[in-house]
Amino acid sequence: MANQPDPNFPTFSSLYTHLLTSPAPLLPPGKAKFPALTSSISALSLHPTLETALHILNTDLPSAHFLVRHMQSPPAYEGMFLHGILHRVEGDYDNARAWYDNIADSEVFEHVWGEAGDKEGAQDFIGRVEGLRKRGEGDKEALENESRREIEKVVEWCKAKFGEGKMEDASSAWVRPSEENRQMAAGMVTGGEGFRQF
Length: 198
What we know:
Layout: H1 12-19, H2 37-43, H3 48-57, H4 61-68, H5 77-90, H6 93-103, H7 107-113, H8 119-135, H9 140-162, H10 179-189
């Protein structure tokens, strides 16, 4: 039997509203806030960007990472942005900076960070989160609020662009990775570079 959405959260909006009642993801979580919701999120059959955002809000980073790995090249700027947010939340700040840098000229980045696509503001935000985690510096509540604002703006963009309806076949949202991404991934998987050595 296929996964069914949780009857308490049968739609994207109901589940999204529920997840927003918790503090926004900011620091590496260790595990999902609500592990039972992972299958409910997947069962909604949403556009992969919206599903990714729900997994990030639920701090189920492995599920979110599975999805964004299929959206890590243009024109999937929304997936690339969520990939950066995911790395920020998991504490991989240099990787987050790189993803933000890759999408700094995109429309979704401009929507989230202002008309000029405030690249410096976004990079500063990552730095302030890193300072909180590594040195205990900064105002955690203010950073959580900024994290929530950022995620809400990405979700707002994705809802307007892709809608909240079912997407039975998500393959149309996947993009072929660039040659640079393919080589980097091969190095990580084969034990060459990076922390994802197998």
